[in-house]
Write a structure and sequence with these properties.
Blueprint: E1 4-5, H1 7-14, E2 21-26, H2 40-53, E3 64-66, E4 72-74, E5 92-97, H3 119-136, E6 141-143, H4 161-169, E7 182-189, E8 192-201, E9 204-206, E10 217-222, E11 225-230
Parallel strand pairs: 2-5, 2-6, 3-5
Antiparallel strand pairs: 1-4, 3-4, 7-8, 8-9, 10-11
Helix pairs in contact: 3-4
């Protein structure tokens, strides 16, 4: 029923859908200490059992759960409205980050410690926020507590939404990486024409220095400097 997928796989699947908001939650319980690196599905199943048998929902509330190792576990189908933030559910993508990101002592009965959103878990969340923000607008990324009627600290008092969004915006997307275009150019040295691939930057063609070897030069590296010695006939 549930699947473990990577962030790349998740984003590829999400391309099929349109969303109005990204809802960000933390599980509060279970926490990082309940994750052993192998029980992704078991934890997701326990959450579904709670949602269905205790809360009496039709299914697990969230579309996807982010595990501490940066992988995701699928939940409610993406085309089905989640049980996420009251009044805002229509068109929302609901995400639970496994962990308790409330600070110790800030809330009553918060004796579970608090987890750090860091490493691969944070990296995966930022990648999703970046994808969503660029596609549907960063203003549409919502913390559960953003809803005035929520009455919750979710996704945790240790998390600052503005900071996370700014970090997500800073991610260099593949679409922004423009590959250098290589052109085949002709160079004449010592009366010999050589064709070599060059890259045009700032109105200047840059070519690999090793192409000189085809003209009889010996190209090397010594004491941090490139050495070029001509071994052909004198001109």
């Amino acid at each position: 029923m549930f699947r473990i997928i990577t962030t790349e796989e998740l984003l590829k699947e999400l391309e099929k859908y349109k969303f109005k908001q990204l809802h960000t939650h933390h599980t509060w319980k279970p926490t990082h200490r309940n994750f052993d690196g192998k029980n992704h599905i078991k934890l997701q199943e326990s959450m579904r059992n709670h949602h269905v048998n205790v809360k009496k929902w039709s299914d697990i509330g969230q579309h996807i759960t982010l595990m501490p190792d940066g992988t995701w576990v699928t939940g409610r189908p993406f085309d089905i409205t989640p049980a996420s933030i009251s009044g805002w559910n229509t068109g929302a993508l609901a995400v639970e980050m496994l962990g308790n990101f409330d600070k110790i002592g800030e809330l009553p009965f918060n004796d579970l410690g608090y987890d750090e959103l860091e490493g691969k878990q944070k990296e995966s969340m930022l990648m999703l926020m970046n994808w969503f923000g660029e596609k549907f607008g960063y203003d549409n990324i919502k913390f559960h507590r953003d809803n005035p009627s929520a009455g919750k600290s979710c996704p945790g008092t240790s998390l600052n939404k503005v900071t996370l969004i700014n970090e997500a915006k800073a991610i260099k997307k593949e679409s922004e990486v423009v590959s250098d275009k290589k052109d085949l150019i002709k160079i004449n040295l010592h009366g010999k024409d050589i064709e070599v691939e060059g890259i045009l930057k700032d109105q200047t063609y840059h070519v690999p220095i090793r192409f000189l070897e085809r003209l009889g030069y010996e190209v090397g590296w010594q004491d941090g400097k490139v050495t070029i010695n001509y071994k052909g006939e004198d001109k």
